[in-house]
Amino acid sequence: MMKLSEIAKKFDGQLINFTEDIEIKSLKGLENASEGDLTFVASDKYFQKATDSNASAFLVPEEIKELNKPQIIVKNPDVVFYKLIEIIYPTEEPEPVISEKSSIGKNVKIGKNVYIGDFAVIEDNTQIGDNVKIYPSVYVGRDSSIGDNSILYANCSIYPKTEIGKNVIIHSGAVIGADGFGYYFHEGKHNKIKHIGKVVLEDNVEIGANATVDRSMLDVTRIGNGTKIDNLVHVAHNCQVGEHSIFAGQVGIAGSTKIGNYVILAGQVGVADHIEIGDQVTVTAKSGVTGNLAPGKMYGNTMPAVEWKKWKKILVYIMKLPELAKKLK
Question: Could you confirm whether 237 is annotated as catalytic?
Answer without folding.
Answer: yes
